[in-house]
Amino acid sequence: MAEDVLMRGRGRPRETEKDEAIRQATWALLARVGYDGLTFEAVAEAAGISRTTLYRRFSAKSELVANALYETSRKMEREMVFSDDPATELLAHVRNAQAFMTGARGRAVVTITESASRTPELARATEAAMAGDEQRLLGALSRLRPQASHDRLQLAFSVIVGALMFHQAMRDGEMPANGAQALVAAATAVLDAPA
Fold first, then answer.
1. Residue 14 — very low, low, confident or very high, per pLDDT cuts 50/70/90?
2. CB 26, CB 103: distance < 8 Å
3. What is the pLDDT of residues 39-56, one digit of tens each?
4. Which residue of 10, 49, 117, 154 has the fewest C-beta atoms within 10 A of its own C-beta?
5. CB 159 within 8 A of CB 97
């Protein structure tokens, strides 16, 4: 049920153009004003839709943000090439995460993360929206080093995600061209480090 809401929201069948406009407006506003400053009225205006249309689709701001996270991630995932080689797949996942964090989305994710630490409904909604991405990245790490402990896999995951978040928050920009390879190398080093 929760996943159904994340995927399609509530109300009538969707119009793809409006959905995309809502996502783009949500990302832009989150990057500019943060979660606390985000309003349904501002999203509706920026998306060129009525507030009623937006309220029909989402019952809460946390649901709107979780939907933007989920749908954007799924769209990017469909463009990703999967591989039987865990190193190649891990690199593809990192590049996907890197692309996800580029520009306004990266700044928006930083504001969402900060707000989720003090807004339980946002924390629950974003965890549900991003659970699949975390599982895919952890799965690739696990296939790369099957002997790695759960704690070591979590740490390697944090190296990748934390570096991307830090680069967006503190450096306010895209990673260098070889950034994805460097993050995979760092995560692999964590997995290979002596216990």
1. low
2. no
3. 999 999 999 999 999 999
4. 117
5. no
133 contact partners, CB below 8 Å, separation of at least 6: 73, 77, 97
Residue range 95-127, pLDDT digits in tens: 888 888 888 888 899 899 999 999 999 999 999
Tokens representing residue 32 in the block: 């500019």
Mean per-residue pLDDT over the chain, rounded: 87
Largest interatomic CA distance in the chain: 57
114: which residues sit within 8 A by CB, 6+ positions away?
34, 35
pLDDT of residue 5: 43
The Cα–Cα gap between 43 and 53 comes to 11
Closest CA to 105 of 48, 35, 28: 28
Is residue 103 left, alpha or beta, with left meaning phi > 0 and alpha meaning psi from -120 to 50?
left
Per-residue model confidence as pLDDT tens digits over 17-26? 999 999 999 9
Residue 122: closest CA among 43, 40, 65, 42: 65
φ/ψ region of 187 (left if φ > 0, alpha if ψ in -120 to 50, else beta) reads alpha
Within a 10 A sphere around the Cβ of 64, how many other Cβ atoms?
23
